[in-house]
Amino acid sequence: MNPPKHIVSAAAIVINEKNELLLIKGPRRGWEMPGGQVEERESLSHAAIRETKEESGIDIEIIKFCGIFQNVGNSVCNALFLAKPVGGQLIRSEESLDSGFFPIEEALEKVDWKDFRQRIEYCLRPEMQPFCIEFHDDNNI
Question: What are the domain boundaries of the chain?
């Protein structure tokens, strides 16, 4: 019997003191929140912090856990956190062709990959938290 193959990822919804949202522009999905796979022996929150630094250059402090989006069809589980920037400088990399802080409405308009906009909106609405959204989509990450 083969062991299950699951992917666990973590992402950060980072809001600065000007009420702007941090986005990175990935090569595959366009504008999105920073995040990625949790490494072995790494906590969910540390993964969100590490991925944000790697993809955007920004150091963050986690404010709170918001919820989970689970793609049951692809065995992908994405933990989402609300965070604030505490240092660093915006960068570009292979993982992020661009990065920046944008007014929330403008940022939401930029995010058009599948349900990523919904994920951000849920993290910005305390009355929706904590959430656990389960869906079946074999083509969605």
Answer: 9-135
